């Protein structure tokens, strides 16, 4: 899906998920309702300032808003799992080393 379409879809979904009308979201984001509608249907492409305001408003990352991440908070869950596994491997390695030293 094209980047602008992804942004438009995510912008609209965030508003709906938060139970906001276009009028309310537009007022809070300091743009007209018509302009928000254009952004949500992909007819217009927003500037960086607006993207930043939307991220702050909905508490999501730009990567999520732009469709580059499926996690709104930007946390890479696979990285968390990898760090946990590495920690467990270190503990096992230390125990193995200690057990070998006792044998010698």
Spans of at least 5 consecutive residues with low confidence: none
Number of strands: 0
**What is the annotated CATH architecture of the largest domain?**
Orthogonal Bundle
Count of alpha/pi helices: 6
How far apart, in Å, are the first and last alpha carbons? 61 Å
Superfamily (CATH H level) name of the largest domain: lambda repressor-like DNA-binding domains
Which shape, going by the Cα principal axes? rod-shaped
Order of helices and strands: HHHHHH
**What portion of residues belong to β-strands?**
under 5%
The CATH topology of the largest domain: 434 Repressor (Amino-terminal Domain)
Summarize the amount of helix as a percent range. over 70%
Oligomer: single chain
Rounded to an integer in angstroms, the radius of gyration calculated over CA atoms is: 22 Å
What is the CATH level 1 assignment of the largest domain?
A: Mainly Alpha
Structural class: mainly alpha
What's the rounded overall pLDDT mean? 88
Main sheet specs: none
